[in-house]
Task: inverse folding
């Protein structure tokens, strides 16, 4: 049994109607709402074939049919019609991303918030792997008693920081001198290339500031061990409440649990993305069991031709795929353009 044009048109109509209404679709609905040039009886027979082929299925409580994961996959791969983004939408998105950006974290928070606003789904963004960034400046700033703020500023604007507790105060001049020497020694290093050996060499060269330098370098070493675990920024969590699929308490709990697990969330994004470009993972194609009724679309962004991060959308399998993919592709392009501007 082959997938001829009539079956393709009927499957397309079923998906289009179900995405719009969230209600199972019957042959009479298709005949009435879509100009396919065939009778309701013919559509019913074709729908029976589509069900046998695994492209649609029957919910327990309805006489209508809904698309299966296989049906959505066929639609995305062969039937989906691409839509174009409008110039006003382009201006809005780019304006949202670049406005009032002070730090890299601001950019990715805005990315997730903007994507969720445009699509009405959960949006996810992961910044560049911090280990690939290069040190631009090290700063040690005095705080309240016996505390010093360490700031690692990178070429991509990433600021990693932390507070170091000391047993005694250090004068501002000592902090300035050590900051300048650390900057001089480490400037241009990729964070992943700053080994314990490199830090030990700096320690011996700064023997006059042994107490200060010892704790600073130990703190930096600890920071660098976890620096590659970039935070996943989440936007539009409340959007899941708009989707009837997530009214079920257990389904909702699975999504919320995933959103709280940064490690799992990063893994999900890494597994669904390809080396570059756009990837769509539908329903049971997702390895994480809690999102088998969801689709994840991911896109990568680049700097110097290399993939440095990922943005994504998570929503029900009943997703408006043309709009979601168009918006995600444009946002990832904007991020690539922004990072090229850092060079």
Result:
């Amino acid at each position: 049994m082959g997938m001829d044009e009539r079956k393709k048109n009927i499957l397309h109509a079923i998906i289009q109607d179900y995405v719009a209404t969230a209600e199972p679709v019957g042959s009479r609905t298709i005949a009435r709402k879509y100009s396919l040039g065939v009778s309701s009886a013919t559509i019913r027979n074709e729908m029976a074939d589509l069900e046998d082929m695994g492209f649609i299925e029957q919910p327990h409580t309805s006489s209508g049919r809904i698309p299966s994961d296989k049906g959505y996959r066929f639609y995305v791969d062969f039937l989906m019609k691409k839509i174009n983004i409008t110039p006003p939408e382009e201006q809005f998105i780019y304006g949202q991303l670049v406005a009032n950006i002070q730090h890299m974290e601001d950019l990715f928070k805005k990315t997730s918030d903007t994507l969720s606003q445009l699509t009405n789904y959960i949006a996810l963004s992961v910044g560049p792997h911090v280990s690939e960034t290069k040190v631009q400046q090290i700063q040690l700033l005095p705080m309240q008693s016996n505390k010093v703020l360490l700031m690692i500023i990178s070429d991509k604007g990433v600021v990693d920081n932390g507070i170091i507790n000391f047993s005694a105060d250090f004068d501002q001049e000592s902090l300035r001198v050590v900051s300048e020497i650390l900057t001089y020694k480490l400037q241009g290093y990729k964070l992943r290339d700053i080994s314990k050996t490199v830090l030990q060499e700096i320690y011996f060269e700064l023997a006059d500031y042994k107490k200060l330098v010892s704790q600073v370098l130990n703190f930096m070493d600890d920071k660098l061990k976890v620096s590659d675990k970039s935070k996943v920024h989440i936007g539009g969590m409340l959007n899941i409440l708009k989707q009837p699929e997530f009214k079920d308490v257990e389904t909702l709990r699975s999504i919320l649990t995933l959103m709280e697990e940064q490690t799992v969330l990063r893994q999900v994004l890494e597994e669904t993305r390809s080396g570059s470009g756009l990837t769509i993972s539908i329903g049971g194609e997702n390895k994480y069991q809690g999102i088998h009724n969801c689709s994840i679309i991911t896109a990568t962004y680049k700097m110097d031709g290399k993939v440095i991060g990922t943005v994504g959308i998570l929503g029900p399998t009943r997703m408006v795929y043309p709009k979601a993919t168009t918006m995600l592709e444009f946002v990832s392009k904007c991020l690539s353009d922004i990072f090229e501007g850092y060079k």
